[in-house]
Amino acid sequence: MVKFKKILLPVDGSKSSREAMDNAVNLSTIMGAEILLLYVTGGIPKFIKGKPLEEAEKAQKEEADQVLVPYHSFLNENKVKYSVMVVPGFSPWSTICHVAQDKGCDLIVMGSRGLGDWEGAMLGSVTHRVLAHCTIPVFVVH
Q1: What average pLDDT does this structure show over 61-79?
Q2: 115 and 14 Cβ atoms separated by less than 8 Å
Q3: pTM greater than 0.85
């Protein structure tokens, strides 16, 4: 049996990502794996400087903190070893793939649908692109 040591759990606050968290916790418990909880904020264009940049970064941090509260609570309640990354990115799927590679994750567990209206109609576009472009296994939770 393959034993995973580090599971990447990208989340966006959607019902689907909360269900992915349930599965990631179960896998983590069974295999003794660490979870890397990832939230990708929107990218900030490089031409934004000074006070507007500070305000945009502050707004992104506040949003991330708010979205991550239920994940922290659930992971702590289940006594799972985890760390958190909040990363800006214009392309969430690309950011997910890069973080997985850079941080040595050997599994990505993610929801099938995110918060987008159109993307949520079928397999989410972020999930679809992660499946198409990542080189490590992806466990998609429906």
Answers
A1: 97
A2: yes
A3: yes
Distance CA 138, CA 99 (A): 14
Residue 121 φ/ψ region, left for φ over 0, alpha for ψ in the -120 to 50 degree band, beta for the rest: alpha
Q: How confident is the model at residue 120 (pLDDT cuts 50, 70, 90)?
A: very low
What b/e sequence results for 1-20 when a residue is b if at least 16 CB atoms lie within 10 Å of its CB, and e otherwise? eeebebbbbbbbbbebbbbb
d(CA 120, CA 123): 7
Q: Which two tokens stand for residue 127?
A: 């999930």
CA angle 40, 23, 127 (to 5 degrees): 40
